[in-house]
Amino acid sequence: MALPTLTPEQRAEALKKAAAARTARKELRDAIARGDETIPAVLDRAKSDAIVGKTKVADLLKSLPGYGPAKVTALLEKTGIDASRRAAGLGDRQRQALLDALK
């Protein structure tokens, strides 16, 4: 499938939109790291909030204090969640398994 041809104005708008989304995801991860947001609360918003929904679960978990790449990988394997899964793509069982494992 070929990419659509964009005018310079459309390209600039798309780049601005993508940068805003990256910034919003970074702010979400920072809020989790500070303790302002919790993983259960964030996952509750995943279906309704596009920014949260498109964030990878592994990135959300790495934002938690004390959770690095090795611990996150082990947690995802234990719960049967693929490392590339996004928050909105979690099923009810996967979400519950993840929340149980974090307790």
From TrEMBL:
<dbReference type="Pfam" id="PF22525">
    <property type="entry name" value="H2TH_5"/>
</dbReference>
<feature type="domain" description="Integration host factor-like helix-two turn-helix">
    <location>
        <begin position="35"/>
        <end position="100"/>
    </location>
</feature>
<dbReference type="InterPro" id="IPR047806">
    <property type="entry name" value="IHF_actinobact"/>
</dbReference>
<dbReference type="InterPro" id="IPR055201">
    <property type="entry name" value="IHF-like_H2TH"/>
</dbReference>
<protein>
    <recommendedName>
        <fullName>Integration host factor-like helix-two turn-helix domain-containing protein</fullName>
    </recommendedName>
</protein>
